[in-house]
Specification:
Distance between the termini: 5 Å
Shape: globular
Strand order of the largest sheet: 6-5-4-3-2-1-14
CATH topology: Metallo-beta-lactamase, Chain A
Number of strands: 14
Helix content: 10-25%
Radius of gyration: 18 Å
Number of helices: 9
Strand content: 15-25%
CATH superfamily: Ribonuclease Z/Hydroxyacylglutathione hydrolase-like
Bound molecules: D-malate, manganese (II) ion, zinc ion
Order of helices and strands: EHEEHEHHEHHEEEEEHEHEHEE
Amino acid sequence: MYIRVLGSGAGGGFPQWNCNCDNCRRLRRGEINARPRTQSSIAVSADGEDWVLFNASPDIRFQLEANPPLQPKRGVRDTGIRAIVLIDAQIDHTTGLLILRESNKPLEIYCTEPVYRDLTSGFPVLSMLDHYCKVNHHPLPINGGAFTIDGFEDFRFRSHALKSKAPPYSPHREDPHPGDNIGVIVEQLSTGRKLYYAPGLGEIEPHVFEAMQESDCLLVDGTFWTDDEMAKVGSDKKAREIGHLPQSGPGGMMEVLSRVPASTRKILIHINNTNPILDQDSPQRRQLEKAGIEVAYDTMEIVV
Ligand code: MLT
Ligand code: MN
Ligand code: ZN
């Protein structure tokens, strides 16, 4: 299967418009060995022609221009995007839906019931799109069950609930519902190869670790290096509190990934602009390299 990383950054991207943290400042000044990053999204395809978009980032216009396989070519109005899977209802994963309103067909949206409710209440983007291109909603399992997507007969998808967070605007931000966030396994039936995608992952529950063990490639939460990283920008919010497992420290993502077979490709995605791993010359980045962990970048192409 073919995977393209459209956006490897977390909410805000890198640099973030109002951020003067070490990373953002040095990037603007050209004083850091780092790449800018747009907000969180990937696309997956079996044949390189038709793509499932995972998340619709506010940066989607630029992302599509940077990724020719997803561009129109089969008619005067066309797109490589055949379906859209939403991992959660967060702003960085859903605002791009508004940008897709010119579609000449209804958007085929795959999301869980709690995400659907948030996107028709707190942020009613799906209701708004009914006045433009319209939307067909396909509910997703939250118990690891399988689902299919029309036009992707060689793929079997499975989705499960994750411990993370509903968005700050959600009517139930502090009252988590199973399915506010999901992880997805994409399996290509003809090859048996599997991708596990979980960009917002607060806790490694047994079913999460199983998904990591059975997959050939992991694209998992790389938001923060430490739990208190947001202190750098004057916030007392902890990574775990906002639904992201930090990479370092006991029980952190590095430790978890050290228990996954060495043959599995391990890639961090959804990197926040405060994260020291963005600096390719940092000691933290060196630690990841030693552990065989990659850091996703925009336009990265992955073949699984
Ligand atoms: C998150 O995943 O916590 C987000 O990036 C928050 C946001 O988009 O505002
Ligand atoms: Mn996010
Ligand atoms: Zn910053």
